[in-house]
């Protein structure tokens, strides 16, 4: 018998607002947690001091459980030549936006390590979730001994088994439908398994609770996830048209205009596959996709372009992250969405 | 209010055994229909005389509703040079299997047309389903006037709306998880939408009943499909380990060994994207995928290889069609699967 997910996470409704670094906001996490779901903070790009401040802020704004999310990617291994070739590809785009010299081909954020772990031990949040695997075993153990519940995403049965064996207290089964970065970490190539197929196969393979993610955007999806054997859901894209979402207005507009058929996964923004609405930059860079520097170096190079495009109210260079159920999106607030889903799905 | 799917199709359980040309058999269709589901015959590669005989045979074996399935692909438009280049690629494989001259680069089966339509007007089956769109409007109208219910597959909301506007009585929402050929016909590129995201978006867009397909392989998937708003399900891969399946034993073995992570879509067998378990031929031919002749010319060229490989009990050149929920497969009979699903899903 698996422990109830709501008890494990200390929440009322078995719904996790997905951590979406650069898109979700502390205000969204507070609203989600105060509405009885699990609010999440995408902390992958934060430095220790800022994270410490964020931890204090959160404690002032909610006494409910909150989830802090981090990346556990492998350090980039691509060559300096690959980095320079990508800088050369970026140059005309930087020139078009009058952005000056292309940034150096270096990572500007790093996998979860000792320094950030120490901050998490101070903050001691109820939940810490990881993407792209788990941190080194000693750090996982310290966080668990400190009382935090550990989550991570699996895109295959093999990844789910690995996460369970390495200390995850519950597993997020991330289907191919989901927006943003694919969490795969074991397979040499992305297996691209849809939520409908992935969830029951993972449920059968592990004994910890399974949280379904990908393609879920309303009460119908929540009920379907439970029918498949999931103990909860993680929802991302549906929150991006909420007032609390920290994305450019042109991104919100593209989401509301989509019928779900114009997204695909791409490495051209960050160096790792992530799902977004197809735009000019994705189309033009597609042929170079196999030759780009590793995550997150590519993310460094595209940063100024993404920002300038959003400021100029153009969709052309914004990473328009979106899942495939985006056609169900509507303008709302985080609280209203969670309350309506809980009511309609009879949670 | 949509008409009940079971009433529309004249069946007891809202389950369609997917037509899988070359894999399903008349025995499977009879077993499925007699168990209260809708049995389907994959007739895309049949000539008129054989089809007429099959129609008579079916009437002798079941008085329940049966579905005859056909392809509505566009005629191949690739050049003779493309065909010859593909023949040259096949030559070493033909030599390896001592198969003599590579077949001519011509189609050996054709889209649903007048002659086959006339046979269908004679047989007058309860249900006729199409893949890759619909036949010309006058043929659709004749079949409907003759009393057959018309189904076809949509992989996007736009395709679902097109099918409804062009006479489909119910729409199969085919998610990216499904095995075999992707049914897309309107989009220039496959949108690859997963079942969890596709079904509710199509349900919201059309007023005819929606049948969920892709990633459904047990009662959990059936219940999830209903939660998403579907009126029924179409299931394929789960039937391939039934005694009635007409596939090589090496294919059955590969299905039972899979955890769902080793499939992908490929054009290398037929010229159109279809999902199968990755094997030597898929790997070796991957780089040539963009340059192959159109469907179904490529199918002609690979025919002898697929057959020889199956006979030799090797998975290397068999089109190992499979959906992503294949990890749920078990050895059974068509009747037993349908009865157990109907019981467990409380249909």
Radius of gyration of chain A: 19 Å
Largest sheet of chain A at a glance? 8 strands, parallel
The number of distinct helices of chain A, counting runs of at least 4 residues, comes to 13
The CATH class of the largest domain in chain A is identified as Alpha Beta
Which bin fits the share of residues in helices of chain A?
Answer: 25-40%
What does this protein look like?
Two copies of one chain form a homodimer. Chain A has 347 residues and is α/β, with parallel strands linked by helices. Chain A folds into two domains: 223 residues, Alpha-Beta Barrel (TIM Barrel); 94 residues, no CATH class. Chain A is built from 13 helices and eleven strands. In chain A, the strands form two sheets. Chain A has an eight-stranded parallel beta sheet with strand order 1-9-8-6-5-4-3-2. In chain A, helix 7 links the parallel strand 5 and strand 6. The two termini of chain A are 20 Å apart. The interface between A and B is large, with 44 and 44 residues.
């Amino acid at each position: 018998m698996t422990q109830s997910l709501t008890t494990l996470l200390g929440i009322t409704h078995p719904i996790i607002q997905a951590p979406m670094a650069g898109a979700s906001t502390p205000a969204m996490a507070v609203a989600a947690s105060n509405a009885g779901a699990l609010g999440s903070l995408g902390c992958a790009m934060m430095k220790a001091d800022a994270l410490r401040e964020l931890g204090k802020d959160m404690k002032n704004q909610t006494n409910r459980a909150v989830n802090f999310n981090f990346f556990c990617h492998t350090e980039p291994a691509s060559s300096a030549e690959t980095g320079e070739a990508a800088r050369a590809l970026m140059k005309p785009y930087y020139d078009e936006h009058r952005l000056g010299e292309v940034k150096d081909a270096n990572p500007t954020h790093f996998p979860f390590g000792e320094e950030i772990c120490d901050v998490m031990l101070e903050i001691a949040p109820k939940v810490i979730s990881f993407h792209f695997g788990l941190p080194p075993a000693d750090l996982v153990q310290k966080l668990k001994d400190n009382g935090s519940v550990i989550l991570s995403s699996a895109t295959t049965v093999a990844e789910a088994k690995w996460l369970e064996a390495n200390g995850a207290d519950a597993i997020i089964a991330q289907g191919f439908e989901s927006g943003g970065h694919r969490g795969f970490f074991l397979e040499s190539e992305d297996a691209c398994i849809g939520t409908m197929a992935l969830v029951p196969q993972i449920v059968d393979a592990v004994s910890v609770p399974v949280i379904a993610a990908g393609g879920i955007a309303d009460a119908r999806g929540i009920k379907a996830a439970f029918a498949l054997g999931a103990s909860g859901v993680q929802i991302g894209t549906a929150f991006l048209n909420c007032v609390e979402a920290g994305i450019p207005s042109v991104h919100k507009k593209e989401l509301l205009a989509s019928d779900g058929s114009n997204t695909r996964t791409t490495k051209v923004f960050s160096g790792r596959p992530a799902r977004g609405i197809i735009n000019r930059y994705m189309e033009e860079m597609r042929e170079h996709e196999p030759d780009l520097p590793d995550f997150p170096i590519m993310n460094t190079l595209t940063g100024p372009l993404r920002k300038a495009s959003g400021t100029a109210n153009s969709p052309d260079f914004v990473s328009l992250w979106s899942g495939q159920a985006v056609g169900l999106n509507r303008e709302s607030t985080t609280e209203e969405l969670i309350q309506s889903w809980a009511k309609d799905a009879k949670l």
